[in-house]
Specification:
Elements: H1 4-30, E1 39-46, E2 55-66, H2 92-111, H3 115-138, H4 143-164, H5 167-190, H6 197-211, H7 217-246, H8 257-274
Antiparallel strand pairs: 1-2
Length: 279
Amino acid sequence: MIDPIAGLAGVVLGLIVGPWLGIAVDRMVEREAPDADHRCARRLPRPGDDGGPPVIDAYSPFCGASLGGARTLAPLLGWSAECPEGHGRSWRYPLVDVAAAVSLGLIFGRFVDEPALLAVYAVFTAAVVVLAVIDLETKLLVNIGTFPLMLFMAFAILVISGNQGDTDHLYQAIVGGSGYTLFFAVLYRLYPAGLGFGDVKLAPSLGMAMGWLSSDPFDTVTLVINSILIASLGGSLVGLAIGWRRGNIRKAEIAFGPAMVVGAMVVIVAAPWMAAGAR
């Protein structure tokens, strides 16, 4: 059951940290030190689907012009700041704010009675929001995000489960992380054109986050399969929509990382209803 009061607190926190997560998106792609300033992005052309003239449809990477400094750190107001270089407005900042607010609202409502899990999954959620937006915009899942998240989840699960003597959930975190990674590694080998290696690097963190909620191998497999189905369905629908818009459904390319994140987040929030033994 989602606690509405805790969920509202999570939404407020998400709106507060959202602008900073948007800055993290900027700086992680460019490997720059963070500072309290949103930047304008410039449109770059990509090759047309039919090999024809370049098509301009994405913001990436950045022209570096300031959007107004600390003023843009107010939630959702990043959309109001127009790039001084004439490149228009970026959808990135309000998207990150909304995604952080919704995701943290669900996580707070879900884990309000388990402070240790709440802390871990709140950090996890902030990280995957950043990674999903980067992948959505650049079709990259950067090592500077995927590897630290993997280490954080492994360390947090080991410490918390170890201190609580909770070997069942610890083992299932290992099973979930290993199984989810193996699935996407095999898929990458079989169809590298449809899946990037960055998705394989993201998989261990998502798998551990799902498996840690279970104490039974069958429940872990159930959660992982549900996540894969949700991600596949969501990715397919988005791919069809993009392909239809561009007039070439068969050659539509999408970033699959966001679909993986959405699938995992749905499972994390709904785990008690998907698997009988999930906490």
